[in-house]
Amino acid sequence: MRKKYASLYVHMHTPSTNPPPTDGELEQLAARTRRSLIMRLGDWRDQRSWDEFYRTYWRLIYSVAIQAGLREDEAWDVVQETILTIAKQSLKGSYDPERGSFKMWLWNVTRWRINDQFRHRNKNKTTEDSHAVLENIADAGGTDFDALWEREWQENLMKAALERVKMKVAPKQFQIFDYNVLRGMSANEVRQKLGVSIAQVYLAKHRVGGALKKEIGYLRAQENSEPSQPAE
User: Of 29, 53, 55, 140, which is the most buried if we count CB atoms within 10 A?
Assistant: First the structure.
């Protein structure tokens, strides 16, 4: 195991005593964190871009922080601090695509902010004791965080694309697409459940499916480029 991931491994298997929040609760917490973050961003230019950036990547950052062993409040701090760091570095022109993809830049910043939380948690420990803990982690144990990041990135890409589509298409069309494609119901079952025609089912599948493909393409393009302008 490479040393740069060591402090993540230390806390990997710390169990949580509280049940995980539901999707609805997560969305409410994300909205509060977003409002707080936007206030901290102040009147920076391209605030719309950073709002979109938050909506796209908060779940990815939060999920990896939780799986690294942070508490929920610590994970939300990681979400805010990671996005603030990216924003500040972007304004300074620190991102250089020649030195690596945006996906890896985001991963590095997320990892640093996760480690910050563990350092804050352990601030009362001596430097010598903390160093000893990091040096004595077995290479064979723990989680492959490169693989974890890749898996969470791909899963978040789909969720983020769906959220973007949901805001751009008619609610009824998205509902039809949800039942027919995402939940795997047949066109006839959707027709009966929602009181729509078979033609409406196929039309929604085509239109929403096309929009989803476009959004996935847009988000994939962000893997190798700095976030700057919102998609049209």
Answer: 53
- 34 and 94 both lie in a single domain: yes
Q: What share of the chain is helix, strand, coil (3-state, %, to 5)?
A: 75, 0, 25
Q: How many domains does the chain have?
A: 2
Question: 26 and 130, same structural domain?
Answer: yes
Q: How far is CA 22 from CA 27, 72, 109, 192, in A?
A: 9, 13, 27, 29
Which letter does DSSP use for residue 136 in this model? Answer: T
Residue-wise pLDDT for 92-112, tens only, equals 766 666 667 788 888 889 989
**Torsions phi, psi for 37 (to 5 deg):** -65, -45
Tokens standing for residue 92:
């300074």
pTM of the predicted structure, to 2 decimals: 0.68
CA 136 to CA 2: how far, in whole Å?
12
C-alpha 167 chain-centroid distance: 18
Domain limit, last residue, from 82, 110, 144: 144
The Cβ of residue 190 has, within 10 Å, a number of other Cβ atoms equal to 24
Gyration radius of the chain over CA positions: 20
Looking at the structure, tell me whether residues 39 and 136 fall in a common domain. yes
Tell me the CA distances in angstroms from 104 to 69, 167, 225, 226, one per residue in order: 21, 28, 11, 11
Model pLDDT for residues 158-190, shown as the tens digit of each residue:
999 999 999 999 999 999 999 999 999 999 999
**In terms of domains, do 108 and 222 share one?**
no
Whether residue 186 is found in the same domain as residue 137: no
134 plus 188 within the same structural domain? no
Is residue 163 included in any domain, yes or no? no
